[in-house]
């Protein structure tokens, strides 16, 4: 039986960002599931009302809760989706063959320490005031949502991607709930799931040195690199998909 890939998007994106990779994987015979986390993609939940990290990840929890007992998946997380992947490895250890982090925070305890925050949080200050915040509970309360302003998205997220893909993304990107990053984990269950990291070598969001530091702190079983911006599913879909297939083949062997 061919591997089953489950693809988890980053903050403000949705299942739509995987359209090229899904097509390539399915053409090669793999089973592919692309999830919209709560308030993302075509999920019409109000991001201002996503109350917790667990609430944000409810679609992922629901997927694993309904997965047949004898079935395992390759779980892939891009960008902030890496935190969701780690979350799943704690809750559904026996249902994940391998966890794949793509330009993503790979933090065993989540954002539990200052070093976790330094390694896993994008520093976009060199580009100026790039974040657009939403204040669902009023301007005198902390922001409830965040997204990169439309005029900065191509420069920061998609500078090596085809223009048509970054244009599509600008039309589909939605504010993401701030609770999506509020994750802390306790225990060693995540060590029971093999991990693979795919570095994006020209990333302007999660810098290369941040990625390498996380790899050093919590070494995965394999590390691959791709010549891409922060979004290899757009800028290097064939190479990126080839790496996913290679990971699947190593499991099947």
TrEMBL record:
Residues 1-17 form the signal peptide. InterPro entries: AB_hydrolase_1 (IPR000073), AB_hydrolase_fold (IPR029058), MES/HNL (IPR045889). It comes from the Eukaryota. The keyword tRNA-binding does not apply. Keywords: Hydrolase, Signal. One of its GO terms (molecular function) is methyl salicylate esterase activity. The keyword Signal applies. One of its GO terms (biological process) is salicylic acid metabolic process. Pfam families: Abhydrolase_6. Residues 5-237 form the AB hydrolase-1 domain. PANTHER family: METHYLESTERASE 17-LIKE, METHYLESTERASE FAMILY MEMBER. This is AB hydrolase-1 domain-containing protein.
């Amino acid at each position: 039986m061919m591997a089953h890939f489950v693809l988890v998007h980053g903050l403000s994106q949705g299942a739509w960002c995987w359209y090229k990779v899904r097509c390539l994987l399915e053409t090669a015979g793999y089973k592919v599931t692309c999830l919209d986390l709560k308030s993302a993609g075509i999920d019409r939940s109000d991001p201002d009302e996503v109350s917790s990290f667990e609430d944000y990840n409810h679609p992922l929890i629901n997927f694993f809760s309904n997965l047949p007992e004898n079935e395992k998946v390759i779980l892939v997380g891009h960008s902030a989706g890496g935190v969701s992947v780690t979350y799943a490895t704690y809750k559904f250890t026996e249902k994940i063959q391998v966890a794949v982090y793509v330009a993503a925070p790979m933090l065993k305890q989540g954002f539990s320490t200052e070093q976790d925050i330094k390694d896993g949080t994008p520093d976009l200050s060199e580009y100026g005031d790039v974040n657009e915040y939403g204040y669902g509970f009023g301007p005198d309360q902390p922001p409830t949502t965040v997204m990169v302003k439309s005029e900065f998205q191509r420069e920061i997220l998609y500078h090596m991607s085809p223009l048509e893909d970054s244009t599509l993304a600008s039309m589909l990107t939605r504010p993401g709930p701030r609770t999506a990053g509020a994750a802390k984990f306790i225990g060693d269950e995540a060590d029971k799931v093999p991990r693979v990291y795919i570095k994006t070598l020209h990333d302007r969001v999660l810098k290369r040195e941040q990625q390498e530091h996380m790899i050093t702190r919590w070494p995965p079983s394999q590390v691959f690199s791709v010549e891409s911006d922060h979004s290899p599913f757009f800028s290097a879909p064939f190479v990126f998909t080839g790496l996913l297939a290679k990971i699947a083949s190593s499991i099947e062997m």
